[in-house]
Amino acid sequence: MGWLEVHRTVRGVPMEFREEFSDDFTRTQVSVPPRTFIVHPDGRLEDVTDRRPVSEPGDHCISIKVTDDPFKPKASSPEFAAEARSVQAEAEAPRNEENDEDYEDDEEKDHPLHVAIENMLNGKPPSEAELLPESLPKVSEWDLGGIDHLGPRGAYKMLENLEAHQELVEMRGRARRTVAAVRNLVEANRAPRCMQIKSDGTTCQAPAWGDRLLCYFHVRTQMKHYTEPDSNKLELPVLEDTRSLQVAITQICRFMADNRIDVRTGRALLYGIRMAERNLVEEEA
Fold first, then answer.
1. Which of 19, 47, 100, 190 is the least crowded, having the fewest Cβ atoms under 10 Å away?
2. Sheet-wide strand order for 45-47
């Protein structure tokens, strides 16, 4: 009995095998070796006698030569001998076909490449803030005064430091503006809400103006309404939503039908309503 070191491609991937051959190999040209092992990159042997890799039409043999028994102990490498004996014992032990699939799954999970991929996928990437330095190098007046005497490398480093300080100043300014905006929103949310009921039956909910029950817009609207109490005039609702636009169009058409306003005035009013509708659509967008 002897062993062959075979290098061939399996499905286009180069692989290394150890195949056992009988004494009459040269005479009978046995096509299927008694035992076959795959040699992994870390030197580990995997018994694939009962599940040899299936080659495809494009696969070919790269090289083949006679080699030593992979399970023969080597005096120069006790570790290799112990590993070879364990592999031989595992290869000669009776295999349980029902556990082959579980064995292969466990073997794949323990593979270094599989472990590296799992660590990469489960690892949380650093945030943009974590990539920033904790502090910036100080730039003194002495450093700024000696710019004319700096070389290319020193000038480049000085420019990086100055740009970093400028970016820090800009970030602090953005942080201050953001804090001020958040504080304004908090105060606005605490303020009382406008109690005006709109045309669709809902309340305005805008911040109330001062100690009043209505917002600035509806306070000014009601003030204008009370200064013009003549009921014979056309009174249009506040054009603040689609319902109020429909009410305004209905009133204009009714006044035009009763000849209380002329056609020219009605067209001008409808044009104004069209502009108000366009503004509402832009605000909602």
1. 190
2. 45-47, 36-39, 13-21, 2-10, 61-67
